[in-house]
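Q: Okay, next protein. This is Adenylate kinase from Lactobacillus gigeriorum DSM 23908 = CRBIP 24.85. I've checked the sequence twice, so it should be correct. Can you predict the 3D structure?
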Amino acid sequence: MINLILLGLPGAGKGTASEKIVDKYHLTHISTGDMFREAINNETKVGLEAKSYIDKGNLVPDEVTAKLVEERLSQPDIKEGYILDGFPRTTYQAELLVDITKRLNKPLSSVIALEVDESTLVDRLSARYMCKNCGATYNRISKKPKVEGTCDRCGGHDFYQREDDKPEVVKNRLEVNEKMNAPLKDFYKERGLLTVINGEQTPEEVFKDIDAVLSKIK
């Protein structure tokens, strides 16, 4: 069983890496966003507790989020292991996760951090733009329309960039995320669980490095 956390700033390639890991190792990908939606839709006890905070516009306390994670990690579909995405975000949450994994006897096998230079991340994230007509998303670096200036989905010619994809906003977002990420990396480094991988490589090269780490666990 492989139990994994992937760390990395927005744009570092965690989503692509997760898909490749799931394909090869059949781990259950657990995203905090999906987990919240699922628990609220299913009206579980913890889901309803989380909803009571969200409905008032308040942040869900760490302890409630941790209960949701424990509820999700207890489910029978986690046979081969899990990838946690979006939790923990702080060292306090990381400590709560240690207690959860002890209780469930599903300890972390590895924590992999994808490191990418800030200027590369700004380039990647601020290259995103959308079709004004249908909302299809494109990227000037990695996902251009088949015909330049024409949307693949609706044939429209009007494109725009969202405010939060503009370089100055992206840079601020990355700084906020890095402040959260750095203590987490230290937390897992101290426990001998952290491997840092160069996320500037192609997705195939990144996965090759991840695979080298996971194959030793398997």
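A: Here is a summary of the prediction. Residues 39 and 45 are 8 Å apart (CA to CA). Strands lie at 2-7, 28-31, 81-85, 110-115, 128-131, 137-139, 159-160, 194-198.
Q: Noted. On to the next one.
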